[in-house]
Amino acid sequence: MKPEISIIVPVYNVEDYLGRCLDSILNQSFKDIEIIVVNDGSTDNSGIICDNYSKKNSIIKVIHKKNGGLSSARNRGLEVAQGKYIGFVDSDDWIDKYMYEKLYNLCEDRNADIGICNFFRNESNRNVDDEVITELNNINGIRELFKGNLYRFSACNKLFKKSCFTNITFPEGRVHEDLSTTYKVFANADKVVHTKYRGYFYFIRENSILTSKYNEKRLDVFIGWTEIIDFISKEYSEVENQVIACFSYACVDNMYYILNQVEEKGSKKRLLSVVQSYVRKNYNLIQRNSILSLKYKLILLILNYNISVVLIVNNIKKRKLYE
Prior knowledge:
By secondary structure, this protein is of the alpha/beta class. The protein has twelve helices and nine strands. Strands 1, 2, 3, 4, 5, 6, 7, 8 and 9 form a nine-stranded mixed β-sheet that branches. Helix 7 runs antiparallel to helix 8 (about 240-260) and helix 8 runs antiparallel to helix 9. The longest helix has 22 residues, at about 240-260. It is globular, with a radius of gyration of 21 Å.
């Protein structure tokens, strides 16, 4: 018989964390699961650990493949997943014992296509508000992705009906893969349900692309934003205002990271010019946006006008900070 839930775990060089992750999934109170572990060309002992777990637990299926990145590993897992629902757990993270039971019951009891819980970092108070539940229709479910009051784009704190992934894969070869994918999955969902229960522990490792000094791979985010804005303008114009506001925040965030973390002036100007090009492409939508504050509009006005002015203003701020 096919399992109710397929849990996909991409693995790459996580020998120090993998056991904790797999143990937390095997310890789930919901037992009708299969665990698809995709070893994405690990060069440490991760592949051996995967095989050892599989020998002891029949619900674990291990796939060994050449390194292709997180999206490639997830897509391989989706190809073989048999469950009615799909879950994702990154191999350096771990989950609460009741996470999939709670999300599954929410989806089944409330006829929802996607169930979502919160992340936790402090186990002592993680489930203070776990009975607060919000149901959202298709449009409001997508709008909330970009508002971010209840949840954002991460795939890992969510349980999806497999049908939501029809004709959808993660983009291979770029970072910010969840941003580029989740909105399309939500577009295939009639109903979303969210609980404040904290079920997923997100572990932040040092020296990853997103936690180390600014890496230009972060600019992949704007490939995703270009696709999002085009999709939303055609299919969900009623949430375009929220999407453009969220896009604007991403532009300003990247601008500040570049200004403060990139040392070489030529590289700094080159990276800022990439952000500038996306601001210019959507500048009219940014300035007409009713959600953005005057402060954000002014910042993006300066970036749109001239990068040299941005650098001058930033240098003045730095001098004042140290005076």
